[in-house]
Description:
Elements: H1 2-10, E1 15-16, H2 18-28, H3 42-61, E2 65-69, E3 74-78, H4 91-97, H5 106-132, H6 143-157, H7 165-181
Antiparallel strand pairs: 1-3, 2-3
Amino acid sequence: MSQDIINILLSHDGSMSEYQLLKEIELHLPDFFSQLSAPVSLYKKHFFLFNHLYRLKQQLTEESLHLCISPLEIKLVPAGEAGQKLGAIEPLRDFYLQLDNIHLSEVEISKMQRQFWEKYLAIDKKAEALKILQLTNISPVTHKVLKSRFNELARKHHPDRGGDEQMFIMIKQAYEDLKLVINR
């Protein structure tokens, strides 16, 4: 089956989305998911595919190839073009190689999805806060830098000093959001 997956990837220039790969597997390898116990949910298919891909990735490393794995893109590349150190820590790999995780309950799957979206939205919120406080080109943003920029912008935009009340509120919220995630 491993060579079949490689052939499917190669027939699509070495790169496809998880959705595309699932459809190709269902079309060309109808027995691929036959080991799964009923009912076969989308989560089980996803998990089984990613378990297979991470095992394949380990095999390919020995052949100087690299398999980049994400739901958005599954890509086969020469090891030198991988863009990451081979053997690097991959928490998702560890999750998918632990076969018991295929049997998570609906509640556990929902909890994981909720945690993913909370983390994703927090990253988005942080980027927006950095933009509002005009800190996008400053690295590292320390608490001292954050507080200094907040004080500067708060004085400039405070309604009592003729500033824009909405902008002041945005600045204050951005400061509150960032001070929770910036390392001291």
